[in-house]
Every structure is written in C-alpha cells, then in structure tokens.
Specification:
The chain has 13 helices and nine strands. It has helices spanning 76-93, 100-121, 124-148, 166-182, 188-201, 211-215, 222-231, 241-246, 276-288, 291-295, 300-310, 328-334, 339-351, and strands at 34-35, 41-42, 63-64, 67-68, 206-209, 253-256, 326-327, 355-360, 364-369. The strands form four sheets. The chain has a three-stranded antiparallel sheet. Strand 1 (34-35) and strand 2 (41-42) form a beta hairpin.
Length: 382
Amino acid sequence: MATSRPSAPRTAGRPAPAAAGTGAGMPQFSDQQVTTRTGCPAPLPLPAPRPVPARRRRPPEARIGRRVIPRDLRPVSLRDELTELGDLFRAYQKRPEPDLALLADLQERKARAFLTWSDVSCDVTLRLEARRAEQAAAVIRRQHQHRTGCVPDGDEPGVARLLTVPTQWESARSVLAHVVGHSPLSGAEARLLVLMLTLRTAHTGTGNLVGQDVNALGLTDPEGLIEQLTGCGWLSLPGTVGDLLASRPENPTPVTVPSLVPDQDGTSPFTFGRKTRPKLSGWAQRVVSDKKLRKAKASAGARLLAVTLATWTDDVGRLGPGGRGVTLNALTTRVPVGAGELRDLIDRLTAADWLTDTALTDTHLTGRLTERVLPLTCPLPD
C-alpha cells in the first residue's frame, strides 16, 4: 500500500528566517550600510554607552554651634575665624578634663566674631548671641579664678584654702622633703608619725602633744613606735609613753626633737617663722583627721598618701606638675610602700572621696583630688 509523504508545513505569508550574521531582518539605513564580501549588508556596531558623569560632592557646611557659616561670607578672614572657632569648640567637648581658662578664651573670641558677623549681615540675633558668649566668658573666667585662688583684691576666693599663700605651700613641701631624708625609722607608719612630730616642733625643736594627736593617725602600735623613736634618741619625753598617750588638751605633754633645736647661731633646718609653724601643723592635722578618712578607719599609709598628694597637685587638683601625674619613683620615696600596697591605698582614698579619675601605670599615678578636699591642697608652682 503506497503511503503518501507528509505534507510540508504551510509557510505562506511567513518570511524565511535570516541567516545568522547576515543582518537580514534588521532595520537598515542606506547611508550607513556596510556590505560583506558576499554582498550582504553587515550588522552595524552598537553605540558605546554614554559615560555617567561623576557626582561632585559638595564640601560639608562649616558650622559653629547650630549656625551654618555661609560659603560666601565676607570678609574671608571672618569666615575663617568662625570656622576655626567651630572646630575648637568641638575639640574642647572631647577633652577628658575641663580647662576653664581655655574655654573662657574661646567664648571671648566667639563674642568678637559674632559681633563682626552681625555687623556685616545686619542680623540682630547674632549680636544677641555675641552678648551671651561675652557673659559666659566672664562667668567661666571668674570660676577659673575662684578655683585657682587668683581673684581680684577684695573678692573672696572660690576655694578657701587652709594654707592661703604660695610661701606656705612651699613650706609644707619643705617639711615633707626633710622628713624623707631624716626619718630614723623605715615604713609608712613611722614616716607619718615623724612628719607630724616634725611639724609640731619645727620652729624651736619643742612642742606640745596630746594622746589624741597620736591616736588619730591610724597607727597599729603607737606605743611601740614612740618607744622606738625615744630609744634611738630622735625624740625626748619628760615621762613615759603611756603618759603621753593618756594626756589631754588641758594637760599636754611637752616633747623635744633634738635635731630640730636651732644651733647657737639660730640656724634651723627650716626657714619659715614661728607664725607659719602652727598653720602647717594645723593643716596636716586637718588632712590626716579628715572625717571620711576617720569613718573609713584609714591606715597610716593612706593618711600619709593623702598628705603627700595634697602637696602635689596643680591649682585645680590634678596630680603632678601641670596635671601630668606623679612618678612612682618620687611617690614611693615619700610614701615607702610596695606597688601592691600603693594600689590598695589609692583605692582606699578613692573610696573615701579623696581621689578620682585615677590611673596607675608602671611609671606614673595620674588623677585628681576631689572638689571636697581642694581647700586642703598646696598647688605646685606653674
């Protein structure tokens, strides 16, 4: 049986597919056609993409506080001054410690710059802000003067220090330095007792003492320590150690430190006068008998550290010259304790609201005395 071939698919009305690469079936333009060797038109190349123009970032707006400094502000020197002031105020906010003198200077510069800005822009609000900056500068300057004790004649200082003048501060440091080289016994407890006795007898080598003066020092064995001082000849008593410890203000015990008695020509280890001596002794007694140290039952070592650091601050209570800290070598010379015990003493003074912001490294102790004890400080010279 003959079979018929399958009929071809109907293609009527449907164009034949173009051969690959011939460009047939694509729109052609007579003025741009390119033919191949076979005579067929070649496909046209695609146009290259247009480059995307780079976006220019506008420089950030200069600001001082919440105010934007116009880019076209003239004169240029004014705009530069306002921009610099804005940067300086932001840098001041990041400082770890306040500097009231610096802040007052910045406020005064801001007041001058804003007055000029108000004049050139006819903006009255700028003049009002300049006036506020001027007032702020005056207040901050007065705060700085009060904290440092540098106030105009007739004004009361903000920090009423117990020792009021630099000569007294230097005298206190001279006594502490003398005790370092002339203490007959070692250890922090002996050093503190020798310091207090030296202050009590500094002018003539003699002075009065009562039992409470010794018992308030936090000594573990005050009787035994005094016996050692009398036994080596550094201290002389008219009676027994027990009599001294039992004596009361109405019947004090006269004591003598022979090494502090002036020579026949009147030479003494110290140059301050007889009126200064009781002030120094009273100052040291106030430090070691501070109410929070008493409440914490601070050891003799902690009280010796408190006295020492009170003479090693700048005018706002930061430790060391210029607030740069105290070297450990110098500190352990004045407070003869090991590194572990020193760290414990620092923690105890911090807990007693004497120290704050402390950091102890292998070489330095940094930090500052609290506002509460600033009246007991003896600032270092600038």
